[in-house]
Amino acid sequence: MSRKSSARGRAAQLLLAVTVAASLGANPVFAGPPATKDIMKNYGDLAEAMYSDALTKAKDLDKSIDAFLAAPSTETLAAARDAWKASRVPYMQTEGFRFGNKVVDDWEGEVNSWPLDEGLIDYVDKDSYGDSKEENPLYTANIIANKKFRLGPKMLDASKIDKKVIAKLNSALDVESNVGTGYHAIEFLLWGQDLHGTGPGAGERPASDYDLKSCTHGNCDRRRDYLKAASGLLVDDLEEMAGDWKPDGKARKALSAGDESVQLATVLTGLGSLSYGELAGERMKLGVLLHDPEEEHDCFSDNTHNSHYYDQVGMMEIWNGKYDGATPVSGPSIAELARAKAPDAAKRVDDAMAVTLEKIKAIKVKADSGEMAYDQMLAAGNDVGNKMILDAVDALVSQARAIEAVVAGLNLKVKIEGSDSLDDPDKVAKAK
After folding, report:
1. What are phi and psi of 315, to 5 degrees?
2. How open is the CA angle 246-251-254, to the nearest 5 degrees?
3. C-beta of residue 12 within 8 angstroms of C-beta of residue 292
4. Which positions ≥6 away from 211 have C-beta within 8 Å?
5. Cα 173 from Cα 120, distance rounded (Å)
6. Angle at the Cα of 178 (from 170 to 63), degrees rounded to 5?
7. Average pLDDT for residues 263-268, to the nearest whole number?
């Protein structure tokens, strides 16, 4: 064979190798790490797509609530509850955009604050809930039953329940558990209190609580107004955030204001803080330490296992820069950058995320089967359930530590949010 023919053969082999690599989604060996500007553009596109999908599902929920209020029945209430659960799927995938992005974190309390003192909103079972809580004067204010009540030095006129009135309840008197809007206020209004503790069963609010002709528990007209106002406000809030992530939106502008290291740190701050302080700590470990179903994220609906699962799914999507939603998004990611510049640390994150997904999926499968709900897993003496949750906590902590290794490998500065339940569990036990 001539030298010329050999050269042609090597060229053909190289072309074939590059083609195969491209078909497998791998980067050719000569490709360099992605540029930060390209990573951040795709990151913004992911956020816009995810929040847009959350908005679409919130609008579906709003329509289901309209149908329920038009003809309150067991069937229409069940449909509204199903729509609420469906609306949580895309929203939970967005939570990895919190913490690092101030625009998101400042807004998040309007849509996903928890836990909430539900006696602020509506009637409660006094035997389980109690009559008062020292740190919250509004613990049993019951805005649905009361057209006027004191809000600090002023009186709140709630003669007409609308979006403006219920928005004033959020963090009223500087108490975080005063929550008047968002997913969990709507959840309470659809399910009512879960009075089963760590036993089987979710909230059992009757459809007749919204029936003007056969009203139960009184004030059905005002309860209807509250539910509709809360549902409409959720749509408004998600429209705002989806708009903030458009190419000229407030969130993208704020992100681009920082230098490249700050932008990349924002991505890893969100993933690390959600993994560690928020999900592993506040939402999972704390509930096991206290064996308290009030500490589960979706405590009225028993949907917590799904919320945790889609939090993890969302973190993996942000890490890998790929989202298969209504508008699929795929592009340069921080994972690609880490694989090029800190390959061992990147592999550690990939492996940790796979383990975490496996552990949280096991919780989801167990709960979806009907064998054991998440609040039952929290019960004192339930060694199997406690272990399932704690295994997921351990995996999330390992995931956060792996993310910290990437932070070091990329020479970034990140502060990951902590949690007393992880960092000082004795303090939690003493506070109980």
Report:
1. -65, -40
2. 130
3. no
4. 72, 220
5. 12
6. 60
7. 98
HSE-CB at 314 with a 13 A cutoff on CA atoms is: 31
Tell the residue number behind the tokens 């709140």, with chain if given: 156
Question: Token match 């004191």: residue?
Answer: 150
Q: How far apart are CA 175 and CA 134, in angstroms?
A: 11
> 128-143 in b/e burial notation, b at 16+ Cβ within 10 A?
ebeeeeeebbbbbbbb
For 93-116, the pLDDT digits (tens) are 999 999 989 999 999 999 999 999
Extract the tokens encoding 319.
């890490």
3-class DSSP state of 330? strand
Cβ atoms within 10 A of the Cβ of 253, count?
12
Say how far apart CA 141 and CA 166 lie, in whole Å. 13
Residue type at position 59? K
Sign of CA pseudo-dihedral 224, 227, 167, 247: negative
What is the token pair recorded at 79? 């449909």
Query: Facing residues of 323 across strands?
Result: 329
Task: Give the whole-angstrom CA distance, residue 149 versus residue 223.
Answer: 17
Nearest to 118 by CA among 207, 195, 178: 178
- State the Cα–Cα distance between residues 390 and 30, nearest whole angstrom: 43
Radius of gyration over alpha carbons of the chain, in Å?
A: 24
Q: What is the pTM of this model?
A: 0.91
Q: What is the pLDDT of residues 142-200, one digit of tens each?
A: 999 999 988 888 899 999 999 999 999 999 999 999 999 999 999 999 999 999 999 99
Q: Name the DSSP letter for residue 1.
A: -
For residue 405, give every residue at least 6 positions away whose Cβ sits within 8 Å of its Cβ, in sequence order, or none.
Answer: 342, 344, 345, 348, 349
